[in-house]
Amino acid sequence: MATHARIVLIEDHAILRDGLRALLELEPEMQVVGEAGSAAEGARVARNCNPTLIITDLAMPGGLGLRSLDELRAACPGVHILVLTAYCTDEYIHAALNAGADGYILKDASRVELLHAIRAVLTGQKYFSEPVSARLVSRRNEPLIPGFPRITERERQVLTRVALGETNKRVALALRLSIKTVEKHRANLMRKLDLHNTAAVTLFAVRNGMLPVSKAEDAEQREGHAAV
Q1: Distance CA 104, CA 97 (A)
Q2: Which residue has the higher pLDDT, 52 or 207?
Q3: What is the pLDDT of residues 67-93, one digit of tens each?
Q4: Helix (H, G, I), strand (E, B) or coil at 69
Q5: How far, rounded to the nearest angstrom, does the alpha carbon of residue 69 sit from its chain's CA centroid?
Q6: Is the full-model pTM beyond 0.90?
Q7: In the chain, what is the greatest distance between 2 CA atoms, to the nearest angstrom?
Q8: b/e 65-92 (16+ beta carbons within 10 angstroms → b)
Q9: Whether the Cβ atoms of residue 227 and residue 206 lie closer than 8 Å to each other
Q10: What is the distance between the alpha carbons of residues 66 and 209, in angstroms, rounded to a whole number?
Q11: In the structure, how many helices (H) and strands (E) does the chain have?
Q12: pLDDT digits over 160-191, tens only?
């Protein structure tokens, strides 16, 4: 990262916030610019600090952090969000992804893994702790959701590449299409599937077995257990 990452921490346990801040500020390219002890306070702090990354827990006083992800996005358009939590359940994982989280890491992760997750998310990748990734991949072969709409083969190709984390430019080059055509296909399939962000596309592709196993494994190795 060429510039300092401006990080806001949202965590209700002060001792954990202190530890995270101390850990992150050992890294020359990372700066903690704000802290909050609740979801509501977190949105206010983020709005004032203009962060590039928000690290947030889920279950906190004043309601679930899940309910604040939309508020965080609204307060800081374009901000990256990394969930750091003790919860590793399908309910929490899927809700966080559908709400637009860029990564999901467990609190028992090592310092090395946390820093790796932060750097991955800041460069536009998706990052999940191994147990989280395993839960998602284990559901690859579930049947398509009821009422799954028909999408074209080209839309399916675009969806697969988007789920693998490729940019519109890379998708266009790979499929020999214009960027505008890729954007159109992407918008159409997201409308048909009622998906609102890239994280939701990734979750949908994994849950519905739309990624070849080899590609999923390659992406996990490349992104450090990224859910693809």
Answers
A1: 8
A2: 52
A3: 567 778 778 888 999 999 988 887 778
A4: helix
A5: 11
A6: no
A7: 52
A8: bbebbebbbebbeebbbbbbbebbeeeb
A9: yes
A10: 26
A11: 11, 8
A12: 888 878 888 888 888 888 888 899 888 888 88
Do the Cβ atoms of 160 and 204 come closer than 8 Å? no
Reduced 3-state DSSP string for 131-162: HHHHHHHHCCCCCCCCCCCCCCHHHHHHHHHH
Show the tokens assigned to 54: 């928000």
Distance between first and last Cα of the chain: 23
Contacts of 23 (CB under 8 A, 6+ apart): 111, 114
Distances (CA, A) of 166 to 134, 158, 173: 22, 9, 11
- Which amino acid, one-letter code, is at 115? L
d(CA 174, CA 30): 34
**pLDDT tens readout for residues 11-49:** 999 999 999 999 999 999 999 999 998 878 888 899 899
Q: Please tell me whether residue 40 adopts helix, strand or coil conformation.
A: helix
Rounded to an integer, what distance in angstroms lies between the CA atom of residue 16 and that of residue 91? Answer: 24
Do β-strands 59-60 and 63-64 pair in parallel, antiparallel, or remain unpaired? antiparallel
- pLDDT tens digits, 196-222: 888 788 878 777 766 654 444 444 444
Residue 76 is classified by DSSP as: S
For residue 124, give the amino acid letter: G
Closest CA to 99 of 9, 196, 166: 196
Instruction: List all residues 6 or more positions away from 5 whose beta carbon is below 8 Å from its beta carbon.
Output: 29, 30, 31, 52, 53, 118, 122
* Residue 143, token pair as written in the block: 């049947």
> What's the mean pLDDT when you consider all of the chain?
80
Please name the amino acid found at residue 145: I
